[in-house]
């Protein structure tokens, strides 16, 4: 996974701007006949040290370093604290330079304080504009990453929708029915056609009503019953009041396909699957009768979970004990507004 780019400010920007401010602060002294080289050094060094402190203090007070949540307002308590600390620091720097250089005549302290407040505001606003731009870029990167994950999930879904093994088994079943002149051959062809028509119509949709999902499932189950006969049993106990909710298309088909993939399906040992609603979840429950050597990679369920997290920001739930396996999928009631 690509690492998130860390917010950084170039040392050239920090030191370059601090030196530039120090030089600018000393320019008025050049036009003062009474000023000496020492005055220039004192003014520039105070401004340089103050600017460097303000830069680093504001950088390390950002949410990226302090782990605090970003404040949407540019002017907030952090700015007030920065200004207060800046004033205190400027007083300390002025006193320290007076003691160090034994200067009897310096600019009035209020001039240094005003200069400090101005520098503080400039650095603070510039830095926070940089940080907001950084956050915007990171949101763009995260959005692209989310799109990539969703496209990957959709691609995986499409591959499962047109599963060649399912099509191969369905055509084999159809051939057998035609060979024995089964009168239900025509119905089988219609259901197979309906299922793939639903696939083409729904694959570009993010969410569909549950009632439409059940129509797709009806065609799919008919094809399975033709293949497994009484070895496959589906009990639909979903509350009709939930039919207007929505789920990603082909969710139920993929869950049932997952059950068949990992469990024994035979006349001697029928695979029973129950569909029912529980609170705001639709539950797909099956008896555990694992095939010999069956190993679950979890890819199918993970793919479904990614789609739910992306589309309705909720995760599926999985309950498992010694005899039953349940997958609970959240139902969405606001899909008309999405």
TrEMBL record:
Residues 153-231 form the Signal transduction histidine kinase internal region domain. The keyword Membrane applies. Keywords: Membrane, Transmembrane, Transmembrane helix. The chain crosses the membrane at residues 9-28, 40-58, 79-98, 110-131. Pfam families: His_kinase. This is Signal transduction histidine kinase internal region domain-containing protein.
């Amino acid at each position: 996974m690509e690492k998130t780019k860390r917010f950084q400010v170039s040392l050239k920007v920090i030191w370059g701007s601090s030196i530039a401010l120090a030089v600018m602060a000393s320019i008025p002294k050049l036009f003062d006949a009474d000023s000496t080289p020492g005055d220039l050094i004192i003014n520039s060094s105070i401004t340089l040290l103050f600017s460097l402190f303000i830069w680093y203090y504001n950088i390390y007070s950002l949410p990226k370093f302090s782990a605090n949540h970003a404040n949407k307002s540019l002017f907030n308590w952090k700015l007030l604290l920065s200004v207060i600390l800046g004033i205190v620091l400027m007083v300390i720097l002025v006193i320290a330079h007076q003691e160090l250089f034994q200067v009897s005549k310096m600019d009035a302290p209020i001039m240094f304080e005003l200069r400090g407040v101005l520098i503080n505001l400039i650095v603070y606003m510039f830095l926070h504009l940089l940080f907001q731009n950084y956050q915007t870029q990171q949101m763009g990167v995260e959005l692209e990453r989310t799109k990539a994950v969703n496209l990957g999930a959709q691609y995986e879904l499409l591959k499962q929708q047109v599963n060649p093994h399912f099509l191969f088994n369905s055509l084999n079943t159809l051939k057998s029915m035609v060979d024995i002149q089964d009168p239900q051959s025509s119905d089988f062809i219609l259901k197979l056609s309906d299922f793939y028509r639903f696939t083409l119509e729904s694959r570009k949709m993010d969410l569909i009503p549950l009632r439409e999902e059940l129509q797709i499932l009806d065609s799919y189950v008919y094809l399975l019953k033709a293949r497994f006969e009484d070895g496959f049993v589906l009990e639909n106990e979903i509350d009709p009041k939930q039919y207007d909710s929505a789920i990603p298309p082909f969710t139920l088909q993929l869950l049932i396909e997952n059950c068949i993939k990992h469990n024994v399906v035979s006349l001697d040992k029928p695979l029973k699957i129950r569909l029912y609603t529980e609170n705001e979840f639709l539950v797909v429950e099956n008896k555990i009768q694992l095939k010999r050597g069956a190993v679950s990679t979890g890819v199918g369920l993970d793919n479904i979970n990614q789609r739910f997290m992306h589309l309705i920001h909720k995760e599926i739930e999985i309950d498992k004990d010694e005899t039953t396996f349940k997958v609970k999928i959240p139902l969405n009631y606001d899909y008309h507004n999405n």
